[in-house]
Amino acid sequence: MQTEEPLRVSAxxxxxxxxxxxxxxxxxxxxxxxxxxxxFLNVNLNLGLTVTSVITGAxxxxxxxxxxxxxxxxPSIYWSAVVLISIFGTLVTDNLxxxxxxPLEVSTVVFSVLLAGTFAVWYWKEKNLSMHSIVTxxxxxxxxxxxxxxxxxxxxxxxxxxxxxxxxxxxxxxIVAVAIAAIAVAWRFGLNAVLSFWLIYILTRPLxxxxxxxLTQPHKYGGLGLGTPLTSxxxxxxxxxxVLYLSVTKKDVTSxxxxxxxxAPKKESTKTVLQVAVTLGIVLLASSSGYLWYTHNEQAVxxxxxxxxxxxxxxxxxxxxxxxxxxxxxxxxxxxxxKAAANDLEHEWDVAESRLKPLDRAKWTEIDDAIDAVLRExxxxxxxxxxxxxAIHELLTTLS
Length: 400
Description:
With 400 residues, the chain is an all-alpha fold. It folds into two domains: 11-295, no CATH class; 313-399. It has helices spanning 4-10, 21-44, 48-70, 75-99, 104-126, 137-164, 168-188, 193-216, 227-249, 256-262, 270-297, 313-331, 335-356, 361-378, 385-399.
């Protein structure tokens, strides 16, 4: 009998945290770190997108192995996995966009379908999507797969708004914050809790990216100028502090009584099914209508023709000028001026993306890759003048 009681109790130990205010605080902090840490590893440490993805993927696999072995919620283990999956989910979308040249519209649709498919299989197999019922390895596997797709989807949708449509991260952040507030109010008035949770979980990804952009961008572009290294360090410290607090207080541990109420398979009511259908219909209608309206009302840009190339010297001359200034700064060993020029180049290129990319996607991608190489070299924590000059010369050649 003495050996049966722990087993009986362990069957009702939830493997994920209770959704409290602390959950959302750490989630937004972790999402911001996912954005800034990926940039820090890729650019400042000059690891490149591929190496950064491999390293982060290996760390995530290790963190999830420990998480599954724990068989219960341990704040330090769980949130380490969330931070790593936020970085990896960001990199999945970045690789599709920057390496495989998959349009953000396609990524957004694909990850939406994959996430919906995950929930469908999860419910089909378990008949329960409650956050209080993650008590088996199979349910936890569905949970983490869904989280991965939410980060990838949030990255794709957020980048589509901020970069693809040229709204910028500040405007995107406002739009997302309003959407989160609307869902929270709807939940208060009876919207299904599981549906509300996952919708907000997706939206906190672009919200975190907007916060990261606001903190890291230079003052001249409306940011606080903290840079990715300092922002990452500050947010990681905040996450560690909050996790330590939760480890001591146990404020986010789901009680066994709460788990027992929600652990059994459930048949969703007609009201819940209707809520899901209506909510997803509204999201689909609003997002597709907004996208079509915005792209239709943007200033029309002529398509490329054999007689009239889509890109011209005038289109890219501002970037050539900035690159030449950067070249002069690097040649004169003026690191501060070179990094300022790199900031200007990145900002102007991001602003022009929605205008230039549709003109000639192949040309835009070629220049974008060359600019990324320059940013990695100039912003590297261990800059090498020879590599910096080579990258800038290659960019100038591409621009010409």
